[in-house]
Amino acid sequence: MANDKLWGGRFCAKTDEMTDDFNSSIRFDKRLYLEDIEGSLAHTRMLEKQGIISPVESKCIQDGLKKILTDIETGNVTFDVSCEDIHMNIEKLLTDLIGEAGKKLHSARSRNDQVALDTKMYVKKELLNIKKLLLVLEEVILNKAKENLDTVMSGFTHLQKAQPITFAHHICAYFEMFKRDISRLEDAYDRADTCPLGACALAGTTYNIDRYYTSELLGFKMPTLNTIDAVSDRDFVIETISCISFIMMHLSRFCEEIIIWCSQEYNYIKLDDSYSTGSSIMPQKKNPDIAELVRGKCGRVYGNLMGILTVMKGLPLAYNKDMQEDKELLFDSIDTVKMCLEIFTKMFQTSSVNKSVMLKSTKNGFLNATDVADYLVKKGLPFRDTHKIAGELVFYCIQNSKNLEDLELDEFKKYCELFENDIYDAISLENCVQNRKTTGAPSKEAMKPIIEIYEKYIKEKK
User: Does the annotation count 351 as an active-site position?
Assistant: First the structure.
């Protein structure tokens, strides 16, 4: 019995149904239908321009592809697993629709360069979509920061209270992280911006094609310069998932803090009821499940990154069927980060800040101890000596259940005669924040020009 596949001429036996099912990727790569049709339309125009097909054939193919696109988007197409993938499904639909002219579409191309093209086009589009979502989040962070320039809170290291900062200063650290993520997305886009179509299976073609023309039609910067690399490269997939892994890591860190902050022990922020859940047994519970799920999904994306790295690590040139495994990992990572960015942004935007609780939390923990040491440095003592004096004062306070700002001047003087009444101004928590005026520091004076830089950044990136 002859094989009825589009590639079946060399085969004399029908493909086993289990082989069809195992080999097929249509279940997941059907989402590339738009990229596949757009690539085929450009390829058709190039074939006509180069005289490889006639204008009549070109119009027939293009009209057929546009009809198939409409049918897919209106739900009038059922994909066939026996056709393996989106490329062969569309080619068969086209041939069934327009006849012999449809068989000419695949001249001067292979599924190898076709799938590389479709995936690159999809990646480029989604990199821009993710960037837009990040910019929306950046805008929300910036607005929250502007509302909280005077909201004093504890800064932490090792989850121990360290120095007083502001809520604006703290969340702008995440603004910087997401800025770097946007930069990585832009770099990944630039490296993905080469067109593989025309590389064919691996060695190009004897047809007189114009790859620069096809590349221009499809919005690429230029064609790929090595046909073997064009079909065997999945760096752009790996890099995209890597960029997403960074984003998810930053979201996870942010979520971890939100989970801590909205606990009763901290009570720094309150999540809106619309983005919280309850318990099936404990009526009083209000759980930060959204933040916890985003934190958990970070591991899922890490798994996808390790998966594609492992798939690619031992592959010889050029194309290998193993590379079909890239799609589900890529699609899942993109779907996950987009969903997480959208809901996290809404959750954070609708949250409220308990300013008084944050301020109260700074009263304990000796957050102004470094300022005691700095005060003495300004009086002429070496920092290492002042560090010791400040540490001894902290120990004294612990023994006597006091805070540094509660000490009498004579108590300060027991440890160093250089202390004067101005020590109280130097260690007031508000002054500890507002006196930090260096670039990137938490004072309002330092933050305002940074806010302006961020506003300009968002405006330029939109």
Answer: no
